[in-house]
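ok new one. same drill as before - structure tokens go in, u give me an amino acid for every spot. 157 of them this time. try not to just spam alanines like last time pls lmao
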């Protein structure tokens, strides 16, 4: 973020200040061990960055295809500064993986654009469970940082 008055890039601390932000998380239950770990890492990072626990709402849905409609319902409330999409899609032997990955991703993006609301997409798409487990904590933390940074960016524009 460029601060024209100071002629420099705003500090990372300011971009990642979660104080006064309200964040909604939509978590798919499919592959629940992985999505729960993603959610735990995300919530822990949000709190570490200053978001009050009372300002984090969690909604649970069956799977990744249901995430966008829940995000849309939260976006329509107009009370959130950012949202987080959490899910896990693991490749199988059929085309279903591509369908779920593509459509859930497109749905998340469409909600973000339609409502001009930042949505951190932490829907993992992996070849196997080991890849998902290896990424679950880092991707959860990253989603928290993306949500906060983008909420602050849009507020400043």
């Amino acid at each position: 973020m460029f601060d024209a008055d100071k002629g420099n890039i705003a500090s990372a601390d300011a971009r990642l200040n979660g104080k006064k932000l309200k964040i909604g998380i939509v978590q798919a239950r499919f592959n629940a061990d992985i999505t729960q770990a993603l959610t735990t890492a995300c919530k822990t990072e949000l709190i570490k960055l200053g978001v009050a626990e009372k300002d984090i709402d969690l909604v649970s849905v069956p799977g990744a295809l249901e995430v966008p409609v829940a995000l849309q319902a939260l976006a329509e409330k107009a009370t959130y500064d950012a949202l987080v999409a959490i899910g896990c899609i693991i490749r199988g032997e059929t085309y279903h993986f591509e369908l779920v990955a593509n459509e859930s991703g497109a749905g998340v993006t469409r909600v973000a654009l339609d409502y001009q609301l930042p949505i951190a997409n932490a829907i993992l798409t992996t070849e196997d469970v080991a890849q998902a487990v290896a990424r679950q904590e880092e991707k959860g933390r990253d989603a928290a940082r993306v949500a906060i940074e983008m909420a602050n960016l849009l507020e400043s524009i």
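The chain has five helices and six strands. and btw The mean pLDDT is 93.
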